[in-house]
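Propose amino acids for all 317 sites.
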């Protein structure tokens, strides 16, 4: 798949000496949904801000559809839509005026049908004459998305787009993001909601301490790093884990009523061995239950033990 964003050796060090990004390399494919995960202060917002031309990098190179973000700033920026974390609308303007103004700021001619369709897609059409100050928090966030889409960008950055949004509205926004991807827009999403990335992303990157520690297709990531468990509920409790289960990754539950076997994608043959040994030693069971680790489990395991940047460290420029 053809890349639309190429990031090479990207660094950002502030005057205080804090290193927010440490040689980040990343390629984002055209038409994909890419989720960037990381704890607070990991470098997510700094990375986005540099690509969008808000923050200057200390070193490295960023190209958007072949255009260098520093040498060809205007062209690169015209390809990008950004939905920031903070609500940044002019509260006294109407929804219609706000979105049209944003389109004009990018030098685009008026296009009433396009703006109307954008507002309809975001369930904002009935609110087009409302002042921003009179909208709910969820509607204000939709206006931010409409502004970001007003100049027809090829790339859309969503920085914590559903923060503070109720569950129903969050699901509506997920559906909207899928439709944008289907129309050819590349989506880069940062989120604290792990289920958001698990629901929508094609690929996932994990950043912590200013370093990109992993980039992988979601399905591959789940397969390689996800842990599956088989819980065997016993007819009679065991006082201790039998020696004849040695060599298998099996644990006995606290009450002795269940055996928990943990295995990865390459270790599924061990399940048959476990059941064979139980049968061989006359251990009867009444139920089997399987489960798989979530993306949240994988994320926690990846960032555990790594240094975290201070939350305030992403703010200075």
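Proposal:
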């Amino acid at each position: 798949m053809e890349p639309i964003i190429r990031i090479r050796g990207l660094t950002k060090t502030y005057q205080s000496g804090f290193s927010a990004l440490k040689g980040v390399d990343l390629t984002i494919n055209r038409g994909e949904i890419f989720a960037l995960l990381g704890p607070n202060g990991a470098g997510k917002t700094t990375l986005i801000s540099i690509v969008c031309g808000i923050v200057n990098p200390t070193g490295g190179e960023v190209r958007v559809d072949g255009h260098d973000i520093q040498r060809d700033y205007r062209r690169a920026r015209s390809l990008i839509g950004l939905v920031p974390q903070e609500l940044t609308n002019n509260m006294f303007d109407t929804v219609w005026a706000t979105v049209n103004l944003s389109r004009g700021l990018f030098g685009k001619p008026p296009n009433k049908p396009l703006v109307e369709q954008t507002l309809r897609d975001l369930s904002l059409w009935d609110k087009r004459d409302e002042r921003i100050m009179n909208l709910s928090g969820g509607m204000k966030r939709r206006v931010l998305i409409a502004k970001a889409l007003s100049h027809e960008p090829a790339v859309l950055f969503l920085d914590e787009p559903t923060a503070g949004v109720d569950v129903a509205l969050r699901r509506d926004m997920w559906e909207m993001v899928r439709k944008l991807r289907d129309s050819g827009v590349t989506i880069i999403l940062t989120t604290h909601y792990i289920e958001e990335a698990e629901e929508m992303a094609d690929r996932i990157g994990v950043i912590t301490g200013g370093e990109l520690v992993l980039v992988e297709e979601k399905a591959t990531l789940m397969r390689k790093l996800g842990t599956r468990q088989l819980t065997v509920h016993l007819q009679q409790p065991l006082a201790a884990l039998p020696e004849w289960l040695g060599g298998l990754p099996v644990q006995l539950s606290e009450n002795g009523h269940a055996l928990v076997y943990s295995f990865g994608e390459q270790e599924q043959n061990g399940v048959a061995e476990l059941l064979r040994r139980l049968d061989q030693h006359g251990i009867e069971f009444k139920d089997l239950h399987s489960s798989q680790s979530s993306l949240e489990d994988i994320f926690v395991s990846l960032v555990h033990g790594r240094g975290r940047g201070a939350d305030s460290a992403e703010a200075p420029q």
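Residues 307-317 have pLDDT under 50 and may be disordered. The radius of gyration is 24 Å.
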